[in-house]
Design goal:
two-stranded antiparallel sheet; 38% helix; disordered N terminus
Length: 251
Amino acid sequence: MFGASKKDDEVWEMASSKLSAAVVGILFVVVVAMGVRAMFPGGDVFGQARKVPLPAPVVDEQAGALTAGHSETAVFAGGCFWGVQTVFERVKGVTATTAGYAGGTKETANYGAVSSETTGHAESVKVLFDPARISYGTLLRIFFSVVHDPTQLNRQGPDVGTSYRSAIFFTSPEQERIAQAYIAQLDAAKAFPKKIVTEVTPLKAFYDGEDYHQDYAEKNPDNPYIQVCDIPKVAALEAQFPELFQEYKRK
């Protein structure tokens, strides 16, 4: 600027840079939001429009299993693992979560390879839970109610590809039985406008994701993607399952 010092010019350039970044961020939020809304013409974006949760599973774990006092493992895939993880780590009875990959081999279990959509992996979340506090069927109810749209084939919101597919990787025959029965129950009740496309497949192996992916939504709450795609899921969890909701506990 005319008559301005070098220091003034540096301050102006810094301010301009920050303003440009803010504008880009706002535009990104708008574009992503429009894209997500376009993919859910009924307005039910990740369960936000639903006022009450889906019905509870008719078939669930036996009462004896709920008092066994041991930890169980569930693995879910429902789009980007950031959002799946941030929901389940706010559920009472869940003791730990890990973002990672399932469905492919150890050699390709890394973000770069998985993003090529050629590995067979799905971005997944391993959920450790206490069956004395929460049942596997209840986790499924949350998964279908607020985590994702199970009628989207090989995509979720703005993310497209087989790595974003809807899948349940069961760790026992009992989990398979419960998952299959619940999907049949929801389809029979026409809980969604389209048929559920969620895969139910055995878990062969789960591979932990990179460190920077763990708790990503918690560490980056101002990220435009997190604000548009994941924060609404947390709000839906609290609204539909208040008795199961707990605030995130920083690790």
